[in-house]
Design goal:
With 312 residues, the chain is mainly α. It has helices at residues 2-29, 33-38, 44-53, 60-72, 86-121, 126-140, 143-157, 170-199, 202-209, 214-225, 227-251, 257-266, 270-298.
């Protein structure tokens, strides 16, 4: 078990390192921050002084070495815009993002898993067909399209809810629905498929033939064995919550990490962008690591192998 954990922790750290390196290189190649911050009309001396002050005139390999060394020391750089630590700017936005992502995750799990289980237990019924229609819609309708439709109906036409901002608890409803409904549909589809596969196994028929009550067969045999693929999808959704907030926060003008990311990218505020990307990658890798460890708990046979679908 110790080797199982060590391998996955090592793989997680390697993944974060690769993401940090890729983000660093791409951001440095995407444009000159000095021109974005000071404008192309600034005197060459001022642009040169800006680059020197922020270490942008160093060779890219030296910039990377300094950046990576600073990360190991807990320093994530300072914002070009206001000079404050990037981690401080990001930390100020995290509570607002959690106000959306946590209820959205609860909506996905609380609606998707029960719907998938019920659909599998009532295969080919009207409810099953309705759940599958809902699941297909979750696959095909992007969250920003759903968000715009919700704003058009409930904010513009009916006037029931605010169209954006962070005015009150009512402002949370539309963005949470936008982030949660699609994921609930996806989770319902995968839960249904996992349940149907387990319900078709010989040991399920054997338990039923022995006279075990059906609700016990489902609770004691079907649900635990269908948990692994479901855990995979939930883990993936937890990992992508922060990244998925970028679009929804932009649609609803929500002052979270996602909106900060959009502004920082447009301003070439490298430290802030890198800090957010590090946060997103750490969230995704950590959630996948937890899923990998849960695999070992749910099925000890997998402790010596890489579980399917659980890679980083």
């Amino acid at each position: 078990m110790l080797r199982f954990v060590a391998l996955r922790v090592g793989r997680a750290l390697l993944t974060i390192t690769l993401v940090v390196t890729f983000a660093f290189v791409v951001l440095r190649l995407s444009g000159d921050p000095a021109l974005m911050i000071m404008s192309p009309d600034a005197p060459p001396e001022a642009l040169a002084a800006f680059r020197k002050a922020w270490g942008l005139d160093d060779p890219i390999w030296l910039q990377y070495l300094k950046y990576f060394t600073a990360i190991l020391q807990g320093e994530l750089g300072q914002s070009f815009r206001d000079g404050r630590p990037a981690i401080q700017l990001v930390a100020e936005r995290i509570p607002a993002t959690l106000q959306l992502t946590l209820p959205a995750l609860a909506l996905k799990v609380g609606l998707g898993i029960p719907a998938g289980i019920y659909a599998a237990l009532h295969r080919n019924s009207a409810i099953d067909r309705a759940v599958m229609t809902f699941a297909v819609a979750g696959f095909t309708v992007p969250s920003f399209v759903l968000g715009l439709l919700l704003v058009l109906v409930f904010a513009v036409q009916l006037g029931w809810l605010p169209s954006g901002g962070q005015e009150s608890w009512r402002s949370v409803i539309l963005p949470v629905i936008s982030m949660g409904l699609g994921g609930a549909g996806i989770l319902a589809r995968f839960t249904r498929s996992a349940m149907l596969e387990v319900l078709g196994q010989p040991y399920i028929r054997t338990a039923s033939a022995k006279g075990v009550p059906w609700h016990q067969v489902v609770r004691l045999h079907a649900l635990p064995n269908a948990a692994i693929p479901t855990v995979t999808i939930v883990g993936f959704m937890v990992g992508t919550l922060m990244a998925g907030a970028v679009v929804v926060e932009s649609v609803f003008s929500w002052p979270g990490v996602g909106r900060l990311m959009v502004v920082a990218v447009s301003n070439r505020d490298l430290a802030v962008v890198q800090c957010i990307l590090l946060l997103v990658s750490a969230t995704m890798v950590t959630s996948n690591l937890i899923v990998d460890l849960l695999y070992g708990v749910l099925d000890p046979r997998l402790r010596g192998t890489a579980p399917a679908g659980g890679g980083h």
